[in-house]
Design goal:
By secondary structure, the chain is an alpha/beta fold. It has a domain of 153 residues: Rossmann fold, CATH 3.40.50. It has 7 helices and 10 strands. A hairpin with a 2-residue loop joins strand 4 and strand 5. Helix 3 packs across helix 4, helix 3 runs parallel beside helix 5 and helix 4 packs across helix 5. The two termini are 24 Å apart. Bound molecules: adenosine-5'-triphosphate. Keywords: ATP-binding, Nucleotide-binding, Transport.
Length: 224
């Protein structure tokens, strides 16, 4: 069974101008997949990820996650499904500003479990931050950290929840070559462990790590 399935998904925005960045996208994501979506800036890649991640509702079409039709769920049900199944690395770090690096991870775990993180989860969180080079910064608040450090915390926060589907919107942005490579290795490890990774990138070298490459343009998704 597919982990995530999109059928004829359309998204329209009605502002000053009518925009239709996603215009009939059908795709499937299997456990263990590593797939990338490329395409020109402003073409709708983030819009597609947000719908896949249950953060934005499509104008029409169906999105199934773990066999559940996300478009038929109310907001509370969608939040529960999302926090159980999806880790999201946003284009901006989107950390909670009043919480330290470690607390941002623990908060994500609390949302996942609906209860305080265990001692073991706390140790795993510290180890994850260490893996991402933040061992000595785990008690710092986001504003006390560099842009690249904040991005690595956001990546750690998505990884720590052990989600079946990891959605990453340009995860290597703001990272130097060493950390970009390390983050790609961590994402690849996730897919090798049976998680699915869907990543937007503008970098050909990182896109080439994917098992399946897609290109979004004019609302249409095609395999590369
Ligand atoms: N809330 C909104 N209201 C109106 N239009 C929107 C809204 N959000 C996005 N758009 C429009 O939808 C289009 C796609 O935006 P999106 O952020 O998905 O692009 P993207 O491919 O991720 O771009 P980039 O590579 O620059 O991050 C853009 O033209 C944008 O202006």
């Amino acid at each position: 069974m597919s982990l995530c399935k999109l059928h004829n998904v359309v998204k329209e925005y009605q502002g000053e101008e009518h925009v239709r960045p996603v215009d009939g996208v059908t795709m499937e994501v299997q456990p263990g997949d590593f797939l990338t979506i490329e395409g020109p800036s402003g073409t709708g890649k983030s819009t597609l990820l947000y719908m896949m991640g249950g953060l934005l509702r499509p104008t029409s079409g169906e999105i199934h996650l773990s066999g559940q039709d996300m478009t038929s769920l109310d907001d509370a049900q969608l939040t529960t499904l999302r926090s159980r199944c999806i880790g999201f690395i946003f284009q901006e770090a989107n950390l909670l500003p009043a919480l330290s690096a470690l607390e941002n991870l623990l908060f994500a775990l609390r949302l996942r479990r609906g209860a305080s993180p265990t001692g073991e989860e706390r140790r795993r969180s510290m180890a994850m931050l260490d893996t991402l080079g933040l061992g000595e910064r785990m008690h710092f608040l986001p504003y006390q950290l560099s842009v690249g450090q904040r991005r690595r915390i956001a990546i750690a926060r998505a990884l720590i929840t052990d989600s079946a589907l990891l959605i990453a919107d340009e995860p290597t942005n703001d990272l130097d070559p060493h950390w970009a490579q390390r983050v790609m290795e961590l994402l690849q490890e996730q897919s090798q462990q049976g998680k699915a990774v869907v990543m937007v990138t503008h970098h050909d070298v990182w896109a080439s790590w994917a098992r399946h490459r897609y290109y979004l343009d004019n609302g249409q998704l095609r395999a590369r």
